[in-house]
Amino acid sequence: MAEKTLVDALVKAQSEMTHAVLDQVNPQFQSKFASLRSVIDAVKPALNKNGIAFIQRSIPMENGISIETVLYGHGEEITTGAVPVPAQKITAQGYGSAMTYAKRYSLAMACGVAADEDDDGEAAEVEQPPSAPKAKKKSSPPPEKKPAPRSDLPEEAEFYQGEEGATAFLKLYTYVVELETSMPGLQSTYRNNQGKIATIQEHQPQIFDQIKAVYNRRKAHIEKNAGD
Predict the structure, then answer these.
(1) Which architecture does CATH list for 1-119?
(2) Is 54 exposed, middle or buried (0-12, 13-18, 19+ CB in 10 A)?
């Protein structure tokens, strides 16, 4: 009997996981997301049961924090690539918020579980004027209302617009997709990240082409195995 590998153990662990409970609400968009504790609760029991441990190490980054999740077990290790997150404020609190977001996002992606709602498009929404406004006398425009800053994490749409964020997503997406063994699982992984992929498609088309190639390559592999 062949010796069990880390990938074999991870596949088994993922089959025993459920998506993280969305136990927090973003006050700006009223969208739900999973706290770091919720993500850990969703993945750690299944990982440990199958002989897998994880650590999250920080990597120096100017004006922010970068976190990489590493999985250990069965004499092997899997690194998932660093997830860089800029700090909203150059303060201890700002860096702490960025680290929490990077840790939960990196761990969720490493294990293939959803940790938030697909709300990336909301950040780009603009209030539309009424279709037939009444004529008004000329007056000074009211001061523009700016949205309150998000306290839980950086603006996701802005993060994935940049090459650094899009590249980090590509690395983690590639890793998760290569573990999928069925079309429903592959499609679910795409749907869970559809908002982020759409942002990358608009702002980083070359990286989007790589994401699409990763998906199509895995799809062909799954369909080939199904036909054998």
Answers:
(1) 2-Layer Sandwich (3.30)
(2) buried
